[in-house]
Inverse folding.
């Protein structure tokens, strides 16, 4: 991020749902204020690119914390995203080669909706998933065709190596 180096990120200790709400409560009014003077689509594009870069770096930090780059290691790290009943998921397959699950309840989407900023939810949360896994292990591929944030009944995460 602009050549600036921050110390290792430990904010997931508070739970990612709480972290995302804090971020959203700061970013939403800031984006609104910027939009009064600058093109909103350009602002959102800069935000998307920034969030993707942050997620990639967080994936690298997860790798350092997890002790390995396997799908099993990654699955263990997902506990941070589930803290505080942040999401309900059904694991469909978990092996060394595949980690398939559906998120059937997403309190992240509910939180963005309750804050009145559902359009920012995909940018601030869902947008991170592909970059996060690339930072963790570029040999792991994520396929996701739908999200609750977009109005689907579930999010379909399909990680494969």
């Amino acid at each position: 991020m602009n050549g600036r180096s921050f110390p290792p990120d430990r904010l997931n200790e508070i739970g990612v749902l709480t972290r995302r709400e804090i971020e959203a409560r700061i970013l939403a009014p800031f984006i609104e204020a910027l939009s009064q003077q600058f093109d909103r689509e350009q602002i959102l594009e800069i935000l998307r690119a920034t969030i993707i870069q942050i997620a990639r770096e967080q994936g690298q930090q997860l790798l350092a914390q997890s002790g390995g780059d396997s799908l099993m290691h990654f699955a263990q790290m997902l506990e941070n995203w589930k803290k505080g009943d942040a999401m309900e998921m059904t694991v469909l397959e978990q092996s060394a080669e595949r980690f398939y699950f559906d998120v059937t309840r997403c309190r992240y989407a509910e939180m963005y909706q309750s804050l009145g900023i559902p359009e920012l939810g995909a940018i601030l949360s869902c947008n991170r998933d592909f970059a996060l896994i690339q930072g963790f292990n570029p040999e792991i591929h994520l396929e996701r065709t739908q999200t609750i944030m977009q109005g689907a009944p579930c999010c379909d995460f399909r990680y494969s190596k």
